[in-house]
Amino acid sequence: MSVEAPERLEIQEHFPTDAEYDKLLGKKNRKGLIAKMFFMAALATAVLALAALLYTIVNESFGLVAQVNQNEPEDIVASFGYDPSTTALADLSYDELVESLGGGISTNVGRRLEREQRFYADKLVFESDELWAEICSSDEPPAGCDSSPRDHAGVLQLVNERIVQPDIIAAANLVPSLLDPQAFEEDVEVTFANTPERFPDYTFDQVQFQWRAWLNPTFLVTPQSTAPETTGIRTAILGTLWLVIITITFAVPVGVGAAIYLEEFARPSRFNDFVQTNINNLAGVPSIIYGMLGLAIFVRALEALTSGAIFGIEQANGRTVLSAGLTMGLLTLPVVIISSQEALRAVPNSLRQAGLGVGATKWQTVRSQVLPVAIPGILTGVILALARAIGETAPLILVGAASFITADPTGPFSKFTALPIQIFQWTALPQFEWQHLAAAASLTLLILLLILNAGAVILRNRYSRRPQ
Amino acid sequence: MTNETTKDLVDVSSHEGPVETPSAQPPALPDDKTAVATEPAVERDGVIQTQNMDIYYGSFKAVHDVNLNFQFNEISALIGPSGCGKSTVLRSLNRMNDLIPTARTEGVVTYHGENIYAPGVDPVAVRRRIGMVFQKPNPFPKSIYQNIIWGAKINGFKGSKAEADDLVENALQQAAIWDEVKDKLQESGLSLSGGQQQRLCIARAIATQPDVVLMDEPCSALDPIATLRIEELMLELKQNYSIIIVTHNMQQAARVSDKTAFFNIELSNEGQRTGELVEFTPTDQLFTAPKEKATEDYITGRFG
Amino acid sequence: MTELTDTNVHFHQELDALEQTVLGVVDRAQHMVGLAVDAVVESDMAKAEEVINLNRGIDETYLEVHNEWTRLMALNQPLGPDLRRMAVLLQLNITFERMGDQCENIAKIAQFNSELPQVERIRDQIQEMGDLVRPMIRTASDAYVRQDLDEARLLPSMDEPVDRLNANMYKETVAVGNNPRLLEWATKMLMASRALERIGDQAVDFAEQTAYLITGERAGFNEKGLNRQGDDDPS
Question: Are A445 and A422 in contact (CB under 8 A)?
Fold first, then answer.
């Protein structure tokens, strides 16, 4: 004891005095504060970036437009004897719409439209019966020969496109429209006055200034068209949904299955380590590579399957939504496998021991005890995969998503387009309207993503909260 | 208790010799007390016997030459310092060690005279007959009812709903937890306290009708009162089951067990630490007058 | 085996201290036997007084040991050799306290007998018993300290002459004759002899405890054919 005391004192000398310690404490706390500030700044940067993204998209999706109609919808409605103030163009009956369309276009255009898709199942509007029979019995009959007739929305779009022929000659973003609507009108007026040669067909008096939501219900349910005023993204939305469904149906069972094998059944071996390393690396492979893979395997090598030929469906090639979905499935597979593995690894081992301890086989234990606990974690991986499948563009371009297509995808063997492709195409076009449309489509994509994710999150929460 | 378990057990043990009453003295040891019980010829055959059992993890020998003979309707305790392989030995008795990919057991482990490591023996069948209770209470995250019935169902229980209810009640009653949970059988097993969870785990283990229950430090996560309840329960269960328990708590081994095996770590020349059985003697003898110096040092707190 | 570390060192220190206290009592008892025999044989009242005082001290120590023993037992729950040592110490504490009481009995006999006539032969015999009993205590104590089983096993044979002398004491008392005062003295001497014989038995007990401590087996020494009697001798 007597030896210890002085030793302890000596060590004490290496420690700061109380005053020094107070100073040190202040310094330590300041350092902590600086670190904390840095982290907050990082978070603020992230939030700002997100806010800027949302601002840009929303800003371009809404705003004032200067629009000129070749024929006013009110006039068309009035020509059928309705009161334009209570009846809109869309309220007209199918027959009335077809009639107004017939009155406004040439017979040649009408024939072309009818060959694309006929108006009535039992009668022809523009074609003669004989000619119709003749072209339909030719070697290459047009699509209208055996497709179902157009619907109300389709004809309404045609009327808008061909008869009303709205032309948006200028558009403003949301914020300037709100802050100073007058300035926009004056700008347009000045433009008319200074450069009348840009608008040979109109006078300034014809211009209507009105609010336009580029993202509107019509936009969502209208098929694609070449006219920016009347185009829509129904085909793209349906294409994306088909894509997601095929991707998930492929990637989730395969991915979860692989994860279960690797986590629960595989014994450590060099081969399994090799597989594991490769899966981890695959998660970081650029998506364009997957696109090439998809092109080589699904579009080319497995064309018989992906084009539906072996199911008796006639299709020119394998550039179908199935090919794209399977490619996307491959792309998301590593994410699903890794996150499912994480989820399985997070299940306490004691649960497996408990299962095996009462004489269950490995699979019984995994199915009844381990998987239910892991499902919320697995769903997290599915959400990530979903987000990736919705947003990915590059592989779709490679496996051949059509950039312009008006027909809805009707099954896995359909040609298709998807929202990111649509956005990509539109942003590449020079006219200003397409930029606003691309913004509206981006907003749609974001909302769609939110809805699908919310669905998965709700499912996950239901599983993790369920007492079972 | 007039349940299946009891009948089953009587059947099983009747061709193995008379069943000892719980209060009966541990079997007489051979006069020569110098060696660990290695001579089955002198000793009665037990429910589980190990002969020259070595356990390896990869090339590392974890346990060396273990010869044990666990008797019917007795509680046997395995004690020893950390790393002496007592848990390894316990887990090798129902082939739970098979789950560790590198683990390998050599020698013979018999259950009712049959080598459970013989080729063709499915470990799943072994575990059904030799139940296990773990260190941390680990009920399934399901209802109390499901916790009990699942084990029976996966083992092919074909009874009606009413018979299933009986099975659940019987198991819970044997585990002395029925009164506490009978009104909330559909609630999650995780809603119970730690001690109750552990008794639920015991009920789950005995619901598959085993006749041996292995317990791996079953009370180490419990408070003293819950511990005493489990110990009380073990003494109760002894009438129908053989219990083998690993414990760090020597007082616990002393309180509940009939026989105690002491394992120690043998340091080889290469510095490998291999577990060895030092002695397996009636508990009262081991804790008052152990035969081996190593045991004596361990139970008086001298360790090296 | 490598060097052992005592992870229970505090308990073992306290147990050693308790043991020292208990063994201190037997040293005092041994000393008291000498004093008490002297007091009887020499009618030395001062020595008788000293014995009675010393025994008071033993009684106090007895209680102290008992309390300390209970405390250690409650806090440490010893096992194995430690448990045996605790058990032995509890037993020895009682045995030594009784030895002290026997010495006090002899001292009190000395106080009452000082005025009575005496017989030399009987007095010599008491002296001889005292001289036999004291080495017994010494030997038992040494056997304990050295943990020497062989030494402990000497005790029954050392006790034999004491038993014989005690048995002989009856004859001597009868032989005193009809003188009532002499008879009274002789009877008192018979009681002193019996007390010494009891102390001898207690020394044998002590050795038995030592043997148990060493071997872990409870075995009375009388089983070995070395007769140990006295208490229940009816004659």
Answer: no
Domain harbouring A317, CATH code:
1.10.3720.10
pLDDT band at A460 (very low <50, low <70, confident <90, very high): confident
The whole-number pLDDT of residue A257 equals 95
Q: Hey, is the C-beta of B262 within 8 angstroms of any chain C C-beta?
A: no
C4: nearest CB among B288, B289, B304: B304
Choice between A249 and B271, residue whose per-residue pLDDT is larger: A249
Query: Per mean pLDDT, which of A157-166, A406-415, C101-110 is the most reliable?
Result: C101-110
Per-residue pLDDT at B36 exceeds 50: no
State the pLDDT confidence band at A230, using cuts at 50, 70 and 90: confident
User: What does the domain layout of chain C look like in residue ranges?
Assistant: 2-215
The domain containing residue A278 runs over which residues? Answer: 234-463
Using the beta-carbon criterion (under 8 Å), do C2 and B290 form an inter-chain contact? no
Q: Please check whether residues A126 and A11 belong to one and the same domain.
A: no
Mean pLDDT of C60-70: 95
> What is the tens place of the pLDDT at every residue in A404-447?
777 778 778 888 888 888 888 888 888 888 889 999 999 999 99
Measure B132 CA to nearest chain A CA, in Å: 6
Residue of B262, B265, B293, B302 to mutate, testing the C interface (most C Cβ within 10 Å of its Cβ): B302
Q: Which of C3, C79, C209, C212 is best to mutate for the B interface (most B CBs within 10 A)?
A: C79
> What is the DSSP code (8-state) at residue B125?
H
Query: Number of CB pairs < 8 Å for B and C?
Result: 52
Does residue B303 belong to the interface with chain C, where contact is any CB pair within 8 Å? yes
Q: Which of C6, C79, C84 sits opposite B250 (nearest CB)?
A: C79
Q: How far is the alpha carbon of A257 from chain B, nearest alpha carbon, in Å? A: 20
A351 vs B140: CB contact, 8 Å cut-off?
yes
Cβ of C78 within 8 Å of Cβ of B300? The answer is: yes
Distance CA A63, CA A171 (A): 7
ipTM of the complex: 0.80
Mutate to test the interface with A, among B124, B201, B202 (most CBs of A within 10 A): B124
Please judge whether A355 and B141 are an interchain contact, meaning their C-beta atoms are less than 8 angstroms apart: no
Three-class DSSP category at B141: coil
Across the interface, do C1 and B287 touch by the CB < 8 Å criterion?
no
Q: Does residue A459 share a domain with residue A330?
A: yes
- Contact: A468, B151; criterion CB under 8 Å: no
Residue-wise pLDDT for B127-184, tens only, equals: 999 999 999 999 999 999 999 999 999 998 998 999 999 999 999 999 999 999 999 9
The answer to whether residue A226 is domain-embedded is no
Q: Class of the C2-215 domain?
A: mainly alpha
For the stretch A204-223, pLDDT in tens is 777 888 888 888 888 888 88
B139 vs A: CB within 8 A: yes
- Residue A227 placed within a domain: no
Question: C224: helix, coil or strand?
Answer: helix
- Tell me the mean pLDDT in the region B25-29: 40
Domain assignment present for residue A351? The answer is yes
- Of the three residues A221, A244, A276, the one that is the final residue of a domain is A221
CA distance C105 to C198: 11
- Please name the residue of chain A whose CA is at the shortest distance from the CA of residue B205: A358
- Whether residues A51 and A83 share a domain: the answer is no
**Cross-chain residue pair C79–B299, CB shorter than 8 Å:** yes
